[in-house]
Amino acid sequence: MIVLALESSAIAASVALQKDDRLLAEMTLNRGNTHSENLLPMVESLLSRLDLTIDNIDLFAVSVGPGSFTGVRIGVATVKGLAFGKGKPCVGVSTLEALAENLAFLSDSLICPVMNARRNQVYTALFRGKNCLLPDSAISVEELENILSAYSEPVLFVGDGYDLVTSQIEHPYLPVSERLRLQSAASVASVALRKTAEGKSLTDARLSPVYLRPSQAERTRAEKMKQQAEK
User: Fold this and answer.
1) Which comes out higher in pLDDT, residue 56 or 213?
2) Global pTM?
């Protein structure tokens, strides 16, 4: 099974092609949120280098959030467009689960993906290897430290919230290289294959982003409506 996977939920844009358990190619650009300009050319470049076309793809995978609202929408829309009319299955992968997959080879370690959600909050989850201990959540750094206090072992943080969290918490942690902290389309592909084996694939029409909280624009609008209602 050949998998095309996209990851655009944060600053880095990543595209991967994988055949069963073997990674064929991965391309990552860590230059800022220009995913609308970069994703399709990256897909086309990888397919061309491997002498493949979209028709050769058996499974489409994409990170569906949490993360940048714009980045997540771009990734999901790109996959929906590529998969449209192909009759091929799609899989939406949690950005946090894909981040934890970067370190899944450390099967006994406590892995905590963290993404900066602004206002001193993080999108986070908790894993031991591939086993989820805490589902995707949007919480404060303080709340995260309270959760980690239940564990008497160092934690491994991954994601763009790494510096934010490690500068504030007192819980012991082990350093992780920047490369392993970045979002990876190869990890998205690996999780997608696992979910497909569990019967969790879907059609392109049903593929959609997953947000853990309203966008800033939605929150501002709700606050204005609340203020107007109180007058």
Assistant:
1) 56
2) 0.92
